[in-house]
Amino acid sequence: MIIVMKHSATAEDIGNVVQHIESLGFKAHLSQGEERTIIGVIGDERPVEPEHFELLDGVERAVRILHPFKLASRDFHPEDSVVKINGVSIGGRQVILMAGPCSVESREQLIETAAAVKAAGAHVLRGGAWKPRTSPYAFQGLGLKGLELLREAHDAFQLPIVTEVMSPQEVTLVAQYADILQVGARNMQNFALLAAVGEIQKPVLLKRGLMSTVEELLMAAEYILSHGNQKVILCERGIRTFETSTRNTFDINAIPVLKSLTHLPVIADPSHGTGKWELVTPIARAAVAAGADGLIVEVHPNPAKALSDGAQSLKPDNFARLVSDVRRVAEAIGRTA
Amino acid sequence: MIIVMKHSATAEDIGNVVQHIESLGFKAHLSQGEERTIIGVIGDERPVEPEHFELLDGVERAVRILHPFKLASRDFHPEDSVVKINGVSIGGRQVILMAGPCSVESREQLIETAAAVKAAGAHVLRGGAWKPRTSPYAFQGLGLKGLELLREAHDAFQLPIVTEVMSPQEVTLVAQYADILQVGARNMQNFALLAAVGEIQKPVLLKRGLMSTVEELLMAAEYILSHGNQKVILCERGIRTFETSTRNTFDINAIPVLKSLTHLPVIADPSHGTGKWELVTPIARAAVAAGADGLIVEVHPNPAKALSDGAQSLKPDNFARLVSDVRRVAEAIGRTA
Amino acid sequence: MIIVMKHSATAEDIGNVVQHIESLGFKAHLSQGEERTIIGVIGDERPVEPEHFELLDGVERAVRILHPFKLASRDFHPEDSVVKINGVSIGGRQVILMAGPCSVESREQLIETAAAVKAAGAHVLRGGAWKPRTSPYAFQGLGLKGLELLREAHDAFQLPIVTEVMSPQEVTLVAQYADILQVGARNMQNFALLAAVGEIQKPVLLKRGLMSTVEELLMAAEYILSHGNQKVILCERGIRTFETSTRNTFDINAIPVLKSLTHLPVIADPSHGTGKWELVTPIARAAVAAGADGLIVEVHPNPAKALSDGAQSLKPDNFARLVSDVRRVAEAIGRTA
Amino acid sequence: MIIVMKHSATAEDIGNVVQHIESLGFKAHLSQGEERTIIGVIGDERPVEPEHFELLDGVERAVRILHPFKLASRDFHPEDSVVKINGVSIGGRQVILMAGPCSVESREQLIETAAAVKAAGAHVLRGGAWKPRTSPYAFQGLGLKGLELLREAHDAFQLPIVTEVMSPQEVTLVAQYADILQVGARNMQNFALLAAVGEIQKPVLLKRGLMSTVEELLMAAEYILSHGNQKVILCERGIRTFETSTRNTFDINAIPVLKSLTHLPVIADPSHGTGKWELVTPIARAAVAAGADGLIVEVHPNPAKALSDGAQSLKPDNFARLVSDVRRVAEAIGRTA
């Protein structure tokens, strides 16, 4: 931490800040500039928030030096982490394709979709059993029945399953049916949930909150990692901005930024990242071109009848074209898909 | 809902959209403009998302006509709702002042703060027992011990207690100790939690998510209302924007906007809305001048020693000055405090 | 400037950074932390951008210590600046009220509005002669004719005139008619225009860009000040955020933040800050309660017939109520209006 | 335009709105829903702003049906426009590469860069003669001398020149030296400048403002087109969001969105879109994968000595690798580069 004193700070103010730093077990290091005194805080600053120092008399502001995350950082884990599930490796040379319906709606819908995405080349089947919906009047998912159908599809097509878990008390149940547990964007800072999925040993797909910075995403991963679960996959899915022509703004920059800051695999969700099916394929290609380790894509046999997210779901034939496009882009940058 | 057809839409496209509208139980109403055909969807559109129609061939976009919330709307409940707790009325002529520490840290800290805010004129005591923290390495709250201390302070000072509940399974427990249950900004769209606080009959203080629209805040309130609990108090606490000179951007516009859209009481949190104690008093005055029904303010006897949010906590003497300022502003607009 | 070296930086990297710092005429000051080396840049860093250092090998990031503005800063000019125009003092104890139509549309419209705002208590008359419009098909203003009408209104009502200037070559012309030259939000970083209004000696009303930070606003003021014109009045007029229920988000926090960083007067524009006439009065009250030195408000005798910004214009009787409200709030905080 | 009446609107309110619509030369079309009356405005609504209707008594809101731009729209110009300059076609099958220094600093710097980018495969040379700088204390460009050096480089390497023009009165001068005139992000809504470049017949590269929506970018293009210049090239260069790990957030979604809304060519600026040279190549690949018709990239022989934008400038060897990467991605999607 670096503490910048005000232009008007007195020697007494500086002395008090030094004393406060030392009372917390850090060492203080003074540097006298031409217009400001700067005080370095020497030690592991991660547990302390910069704001903590800003209310001392004479302090203008405090600036963090270290990233607040440690287990997620490449500093101490320079090589890529690869998460393995039943022969699928996420974070390696191959770009992994996850696909399936937003919500599990019925056996027919799920089996038809699973067959189609398998045939097109998907490696993992997605599908929601409980759905977080903005409106209390909208379809909320099949619940346990949805999990059972996902398991049935897993057995029929040998596709690992990724599905969302929405509260701490459901983690054990969902882990019995799913191969990868998804923490959704709206729950990215549901710290009780992060702790709960940190206690199990199944892979976790952690989606970036639509209002969260890259650093906050990595802090959410740190929660899971610090509870003992090292199998974390990050997912960029679009952020909220002033632009209204798309549902979200897919933050393509976040992909190479995350790859440089963390060893964890990073995948992309072009369905939520755009909110419109016509945009899914170009943004899927872009995400892979930028270095994403995988994609998660919504596919529905009849989007107009979908009970959720129809507007951003691809029909099976469009998904097959996406896979073909993405493979060529992956090969152009020395990967496979 | 209004459906705008593309310039290139065919008669067949239009026919299909009409058929789709009718299959959902609505009536369709065509209007032929000079460059576009527009189709009105007649009926209660609230459960349907506009995106649902946007994937039909020939549709350019769909626009909601009704606000998606109903119970929270003034349309069907024009007069103000007043939430009453032990003689305190929130949403009436008096501006209600809630104050206390961010986290309950110890009996001494809580009692000292409670005594001070009571003396200064606060009507409700706030304090956190469980704290949502961005870092897994930061202080997470005293938990149950914190609730017990809050109850003790309640009894000592006859101040109703507001405290945060973070997961559905803790609602019953927290409701035994608290007079008002707070749903925090990060949980504004934790739908399981909204449902759970909707099942009880204690007042709920619902904070706006830091990247949630006014409409989403009202939809979150709708979750609680539709589960049977009518005692909902809304709270503006700042949103996330590009501006970095303050922790959040306090959305002062939201106060009169909410007051016009909903009958529910609206209070303001200038502590989180600014993140800096020097700004708390001017923004508290502004919120009351804009029509807020109350304030919730962080106060700590020694902010530099606070285990959380010290930078935005007022010392007791500054809080007393805030109360004095706010009273004069309230009177200037025909209210009391 | 503080330069944070990467965890992996070598001694050679550090040596090169030190050499680079010295080649720019600064002194370097090393501080060895537990996980990072930090290098302080001693000297007036203002002309250098932090990014300049970030491309040197081994550098993680560079952090500015000093605010990049100097003439606008309270550091070297602690007392408030007061801008005086024909007996009106902006930045003193009195809250100054500027009001008038968005665009000058005709003599009748302008004279009727001027008479009304004068009667209600306004101190300055506003009105646009050239209008920046998003659409090339919208009314673009009366131009020179508008300036002449403004001067006529000035003479008739003894109200100083504020009007917008949109390009450097019009500065001299506009300065012949106006008492205060306004630089609009879209031109806040039109550096040629800032330089041009910096060369004259008339007061400049500088509006914050709708996506500009407080720091960028102060840098824009610095352009004007550094060209020799010290009569700069800042104006908060709302920023662009994700919220769509209002045209802009009025950044109330910016008022006390600006007042603490700079000695320049700060006024508020609740008309653009909200975009809806119903919200103008509550936000006007709030701005004054937060410490604004004045208001600029759009008033039109018949908003439904206005050629621009009708939706956010007050009718004269509503403006009179605003003045009455604002006076009471100003008195509540020890000012007049 | 669709006008949504309030729940509480009276028959008289509705009558007045209809009368107002007709007084503007439109036809009104009523539709009575279950909870709201809706009034359609039939006619070319483009010159009218929705806010215009929102202040009539009983109106809840007005919604635009048509995009406000016409000449830029694919509705009336379905096929792609191709802008041709000396044998370079922008908007065709080939992805066009523009590269060069941020600022022209000296003959040596420019010639060395031009030689390098030509050798690497660039089709157009970029370079700034006047630079918009946030700080009045930073390097402001060589001015006319810069234009002369650009022309010299043009003649030596047969590379068309793109350079920024910052004010209306410089358009004629810059057009004598440049093959493409750039309107920078900060000037995207400098309407006087848009009109001036609309009067000439040279291609214009119009950069999206960092605060501008896709629709506003198209309205800025409409200004140029409506003044008679049809040779407009759009450029996505990143927008401002809450994310601080990159200088801007490159809006990758905007590329396919623009390609669907307009016939104009769309290129990408990954240098400004990221602000960090390490991110330029992955984002350049992504932009091409998403469908960009070209790239504009900052290259400098010695970024650490650059007088502006060094941090986002590629060295010549890195630019050569970018070209090689981008070519493979272009081929993967059926284009060349």
Helix-residue proportion of chain A: 25-40%
| Distance, first to last CA of chain A | 43 Å
Order of helices and strands of chain A: EHEEHEEEEHEHEHEHEHEHEHHEH
SS elements, strand count of chain A = 14
- Output the radius of gyration of chain A: 23 Å
Largest interface: A-B, 49 and 50 residues
Helix vs. strand class of chain A: alpha/beta
What is the residue-mean pLDDT of chain A, rounded to a whole number?
94
Q: Describe the strand arrangement of the main beta sheet of chain A, using strand numbers.
A: 7-8-9-10-11-12-13-14
Largest sheet of chain A: 8 strands, parallel, barrel
Low-confidence stretches of chain A: none
Structure description:
The structure is a homotetramer of 337-residue chains. Chain A is α/β, with parallel strands linked by helices. In chain A, 34% of the residues lie in helices and 18% in strands. Chain A is built from eleven helices and 14 strands. Chain A has helices spanning 11-23, 51-54, 107-120, 144-157, 171-177, 191-198, 214-226, 254-261, 270-274, 277-289, 316-332; strands at residues 2-5, 27-32, 37-42, 59-63, 83-85, 88-90, 96-100, 124-126, 161-164, 180-183, 204-207, 232-236, 266-268, 294-298. In chain A, the strands form three sheets. An eight-stranded parallel β-barrel of chain A has the order 7-8-9-10-11-12-13-14, surrounded by seven helices. In chain A, strands 2-3-1-4 form a four-stranded antiparallel β-sheet. In chain A, strand 5 and strand 6 (88-90) form a beta hairpin. The longest helix of chain A has 17 residues, at 316-332. Chain A is elongated and about 75 Å long. Chain B binds chain C through residues 211, 213-215, 239, 241-246, 249-257, 260, 273-274, 278-279, 282-283, 285-291, 325, 328-329, 331-333, and chain C through 211, 213-215, 239, 241-246, 249-257, 260, 273-274, 278-279, 282-283, 285-291, 325, 328-329, 331-333.
